[in-house]
Amino acid sequence: MTLRGIAEHLGLHVSTVSRVLNGPSGERGRAASGETVRRIRELAEELGYRPNPHATSLRTRRSNLIGVLFPRLSEIVVATIYEGVEEEATRRGLSTFVTNTHDDPATQRERIGMVLGRRVDGLIIGDAHLDGAALTEPALDGTPFVLVNRRTDTGHPAVTCDDRLGGRLVAEHFLSLGHRQVAVVAGEPFASTGTDRTAGFTDRYREAGLPLPAHRVRHCRFDTSGGHEAAAELLSGPDRPTAIFAVNDLAAIGTMGAARDLGLRLGEDLALAGFNDTPLAAELPVPLTSVRSPMAEQGRRAVELLLRGIAGEPVVSQTLTPRLMVRASSGAPVGARLR
To answer: Fewest CB within 10 A of the end CB: N or C in the chain?
Structure first.
């Protein structure tokens, strides 16, 4: 069934039918009267009409395809953000093309070129490094793009969680429990997620008159083995911390392993908090205190911002609000024992 066939069946001009079924999502309901729109949609559904994306692309000079770059789609946080991207893109009649870059600058540049070769209308980039180096590629000139989950120091438009606030929430929680000797499993230094969460935490402790010494902040990979290695170093010294903030839940799970190996009891000998509040956090043998980040919402908002950029509208970065989910891993108040 074609647009012309539907138009002839209903006695309408083919352009009216086309605007209702294939026009920009915000204009489809205004292309005709409400009753006419209803008749067109009902007949299209009854006859099994499906838009021809190639014909639409030729007509509009758009591919209706969004390129998406992430470090590793296998990571639960990344996968959840991508679900939000895909959900919103589909709702707006768009398709997505996603690729992994493994957080490697050379691979980032290569994959940007490869994605642009698919004639995408724009990009959503979830693997940005703070220096924004890969985003200076000449191939990106003239192509709208939006960052998600991570920001850069170069000011590109981004949708992120308020990572500084998240780190600050953990610090407030630890301070309320009386923890003075604390440490951070800080993640990769090139990613804003690690640096901003760490900064929010350490800034609050500095305000409380308890600045963290440099050796209490350990950078590591954003995975369980990285968290395990960093925590083992922090916990093996003579002045081990009584509380650790790991900047993502995978690193926090690695920290749990290090504590177990050393015979430390979570919530008693060691308080622990993570970040993102992945579904696994609440189901661990010792449920993990974690900062809840609006992951899928970041993906949805990134699509909205990208479409504004494609339409030539101003695009302003958005920062979403986190919440602290307190569970057993951070323990009960222990102020008298720790002060």
So the answer is: C
- The residue that leads in pLDDT, 53 or 180, is 180
**Confidence band of 62 (pLDDT split at 50, 70, 90):** low
Residues 6+ apart with CB under 8 A from 279: 76
Evaluate if residue 99 carries a pLDDT over 80. Answer: yes
Is 148 in contact with 85 (CB distance < 8 Å)?
A: yes
Cα 227 to Cα 242: distance, rounded to the nearest angstrom: 16
User: Higher pLDDT residue, 61 or 189?
Assistant: 189
Q: Considering the chain, what is the average pLDDT of its residues?
A: 89
CA distance 85 to 52: 22
Residue for token pair 């350490």: 202
The count of C-alpha atoms lying within 13 angstroms of the C-alpha of 4, restricted to the half-sphere facing its C-beta, is 0
